[in-house]
Design brief:
heterodimer, A: 253 residues, alpha/beta, Rossmann fold, 6-stranded mixed beta sheet, globular, B: 438 residues, 10-stranded mixed beta sheet, 20 strands, binds adenosine-5'-triphosphate, binds magnesium ion
Chain lengths: 253, 438
């Protein structure tokens, strides 16, 4: 199967933020149709890695390579990465006062389609995508993320993913802050999006999400490095025993 | 031309101003005396830290007859169309404060609503005018207020009798002359008990290039909102690039009256604007939502005042500034709550968005709270666009320029919510235009 081009591939990525190295050499390959999960303690570098891959200017990649569908992305601005097919759902989505969800979404979709694209289907698509995620239509005219509850913000992130339909989705704790019903709705959204041509990389703390969205691989991040990779059973083990046994395994061998 | 630190006295009041009742002539004369006897404010003095006072001195004893911009006729035509289509209740064209024409919807006249020349109102509504004219903006307000008080000719008078509401906005277009012109427009508004009105006060014209030519507009606005009245006053300053503008506005809200003031500024080379509301009766409420967007070398100096003279009154200010190129703006906002004015609420916020290096903003909140029994807060920020917001938008494919436009449009959108729809579109156009070349 060596002729399959990975959707996302990165090698030996090092990330610095505020002069501190927080990601210390990680590599990963996501092939078409694969779902990967990253787990790891607070502060281990998961969001830093996601932000850096997306092109956040505060997260400098000091070393390593990253490819989206075979194309190097590290020299691209974030908007170019997005249009090339990379998507990041934020752990803490930001509010933009005065910009409605509908206007935001329209501008985003238009930027993907090109300035001269026909947008006459926008309303229909937008309405349908909202309905799919059980988002009330009244959100269309609200200012994006302003005064939204934690769970509402996450649903709106998934809405953006489903409308932009990226080749590769990085989902940073999209399950956190969701109630039991919402986690189902969001998982269904991810599953509807996911197919044999795209890739998903989810950062999560909970096995719960992985019951709904089955990962092919689970990676454990500690102190800026992947220290273990396994199948879905690894997530179960972590849920049961926490991260301490990993430390023992690492140092005790 | 040199006017630097050189005071120029107002000569004898010209015969054409020597009309009307004795009290008015006395006022004009005392205002003239006051102007002539008040030295030019020293730079650095309170409220004069940011703007050279000599900017507003009339440097020629005689100012040439004004000429007006060539597209004025088109503007008039479209304004009359708005009136005909019922989008406005009245259109008043005030050319250089001198030549004022009135177009009123029929129902206004039937309802007894008065919109007329101030010089006529002095005769026809002498009691009202005598009571309110000079009651808020007068020679004691400052040297340049004294100048307007002496020299206004002519002005506009608006009177809404008790219990009347004017559904559509009254639109005043204050057109300044181009080069070598100085104008002193004046507006007096009296809103009767339980009445309602929206006034759009638009300032345009003036010198189109920054040059030594005199192009001064010194305007005074007084608004009186009687008990239970609801007044919306929108000031839109969109003068031409070479204009110098001095705006003094004061409004008074009596018991349970509400006043919404929306100062909008996009134009002029130098603009000093002063908006103030006195909360003068229990239950009175004032909201002030301002917006200015400066570019090029524009200079803005803004003051706001909320003066609570009576208890159980509320006020809220949100003044937004967007600057680009080498524009600069200063904002001084005073909240004053008298000792006897208990259980008031007063909020003040000033946000400044700087789109590039080179532009500059300052903000000075001032509080004079003379009793403890109040809720009061103020906040100010000055800074560039939030890079996290830019990143968020870029993550969705939107490029840097478009992201900037969206954030600025969002920033102003919350203020534009306060203005009538027709005007909203017009202002959105100004904003879009300013954002074209970022
Ligand atoms: N913008 C920043 N400025 C300064 N330090 C940062 C910044 N972003 C991340 N860090 C630091 O980098 C380290 C990794 O943080 P990161 O947010 O990547 O962790 P995480 O694995 O996503 O944690 P969590 O599970 O809590 O979300 C932490 O020590 C954090 O304090
Ligand atoms: Mg994180």
């Amino acid at each position: 199967m060596s002729d399959i081009k990975p959707i996302l591939e990165f090698k030996d990525i090092h990330v610095e933020v505020e002069g501190k190295e927080v990601v210390k050499g990680v590599s990963l390959t996501v092939n078409p149709g694969e779902i990967h999960a990253i787990m790891g303690k607070n502060g281990s570098g998961k969001s830093s890695l996601s932000n850096a891959l997306m092109g956040h200017p505060a997260y400098t990649i000091t070393n390593g390579e990253a490819y989206l569908k075979g194309k190097s992305i590290l020299d691209m601005e974030a908007d170019v990465r997005s249009r090339a097919g990379l998507f990041l759902a934020f752990q803490y989505p930001l509010a933009i006062p005065g910009v409605t969800v509908a206007n935001f979404m329209r501008a985003a979709l238009k930027s993907h389609r090109g300035a001269d694209a026909d947008m006459s289907d926008f309303r229909k698509l937008f309405k349908a995508a909202m309905a799919d995620l059980s988002i009330d239509q009244s959100f269309a005219t609200r200012y994006i993320n302003e005064g939204f509850s934690g769970g509402e913000k996450k649903r709106i992130e998934v809405l953006q993913m489903s409308m932009l339909n990226p080749a590769m989705a990085l989902l940073d704790e999209t399950d956190s802050g969701l109630d039991i019903d919402a986690i189902k709705i969001v998982s269904e959204g991810i599953n509807r999006f996911q197919n044999e041509n795209n890739g998903v990389l989810m950062v999560t703390h909970y096995q719960r999400l992985l019951n709904f969205v089955k990962p092919d691989k689970v990676h454990v991040m500690m102190d800026g490095k992947f220290v273990m990779t396994g199948g879905p059973e690894l997530a179960l083990k972590l849920e049961e025993s926490g991260y301490e046994w990993l430390n023992e395994e690492k140092t005790g061998v | 031309m040199t006017t630097q630190n050189q005071d120029i006295l107002i000569p004898e009041i010209t015969p054409e101003l020597k009309r009307g009742p004795q009290w008015l002539q006395d006022k004009r004369n005392s205002s003239k005396e006051s102007y002539n006897n008040t030295p030019i404010p020293r730079r650095g003095l309170h409220l004069w830290r940011y703007t050279d006072p000599t900017t507003f001195v009339v440097d020629k004893a005689e100012v040439a007859d004004a000429t007006f911009r060539t597209d004025l006729d088109n503007v008039i035509e479209s304004e009359l169309a708005l009136l005909q289509n019922g989008h406005s209740s009245a259109f008043v064209l005030d050319k250089a404060g001198r030549d004022i024409t009135f177009n009123l919807a029929d129902n206004l006249v039937k309802d007894g609503i008065v919109i007329s020349k101030l010089s006529d109102a002095v005769e026809t509504h002498s009691e009202l005018v005598n009571k309110h004219l000079y009651s808020q903006v007068n020679s004691e307000s400052g040297k340049f207020e004294a100048m307007n008080s002496a020299l206004w000719n002519d002005g506009i008078f608006i009177y809404i009798p008790d219990g009347k509401s004017v559904a559509q906005p009254i639109h005043l277009l204050r057109e300044s002359g181009m080069d070598n012109s100085a104008q002193f427009p004046r507006l007096l508004v009296v809103v009767g008990k339980n009445s309602e009105v929206t006034i759009i006060d638009e300032y345009s014209g003036g010198s189109e290039t920054q040059s030594d030519n005199m192009s001064l507009t010194n305007s005074a606005v007084e608004i009186f909102g009687d008990n239970d009245s609801r007044t919306r006053y929108i000031s839109l300053q969109r003068n031409s690039e070479g204009a110098k503008v001095y705006l003094a506005h004061r409004a008074k809200a009596q018991q349970n009256a509400t006043v919404l003031t929306v100062p909008l500024a996009f134009g002029a080379a130098v603009s000093k604007q002063n908006f103030g509301v006195t909360l003068n009766g229990e239950g009175a409420d004032s909201k002030m939502y301002g917006l200015l967007f400066g570019g090029g070398h524009q200079h803005y100096d803004n003051h706001t005042l909320h003066h609570h003279t009576v208890g159980k009154t509320t006020s809220d200010i949100n003044f937004k500034v967007v600057l680009k190129d080498k524009a600069n703006s200063a904002y001084t906002g005073l909240i004053k709550i008298e000792n006897k004015a208990k259980t008031c609420e007063a909020y003040q916020e000033n946000r400044n968005l700087l789109l590039n290096r080179g532009c500059k903003a300052e903000t000075i909140p001032e509080l004079e709270i003379l009793n403890e029994d109040v809720i009061c807060s103020h906040g100010a920020t000055i800074g560039p666009l939030d890079p996290e917001m830019i990143f968020f938008l870029k993550c969705r494919g939107i490029n840097q320029t478009e992201a900037t436009r969206m954030i600025v449009s969002g920033f102003v959108a919350t203020t534009l919510k306060q203005v009538p729809d027709d005007l909203k579109e017009k202002i959105a156009e100004f904003v879009t235009k300013r954002l074209e070349d970022i």
